[in-house]
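Thread: quick sanity check before group meeting

JM: Hey all, I'm pulling together slides for Thursday and realized we never actually wrote out the predicted structure for the chain we discussed last week. Dropping the sequence here so it's in one place. If anyone has concerns about the input, flag it before I start.
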Amino acid sequence: MKSSVFKYFTITSIVLISCSVKNDEVLIPKNILSKEETIKIITDCYLAEGASGINVKTVNGQNIDSVYLFNPLKDNNCQKAKFDSSILFYSKHPLILKQIYNDVLEQLNKTGAKGKL
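JM (edit): ok, ran it. Output follows.
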């Protein structure tokens, strides 16, 4: 009986402690994009993706790849490996990632981009 009470208390304590960790307490390593940089790049990715679908049907097949030449990583001076590492890092911190995507949605709404992510 004592061991199950101890196990229950231990598990409950671990859950409560892990849930009480705030986003501000997570130290972002230097090799990871800041939240602001990540928001900018993800926003640009969604805008580029949306723009690439505009009037593509009216372009002949030979010119299709040069109609919209957006590269959000290059435009933001970011290497793909750093972006991938940053997304992996933030995916391990879902509360921060959720805030990043909320800010991305807010930025898209400001630009007039409509729709859901």
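AS: nice. The radius of gyration is 21 Å. The first helix runs from residue 2 to 19.
JM: adding both to the slides.
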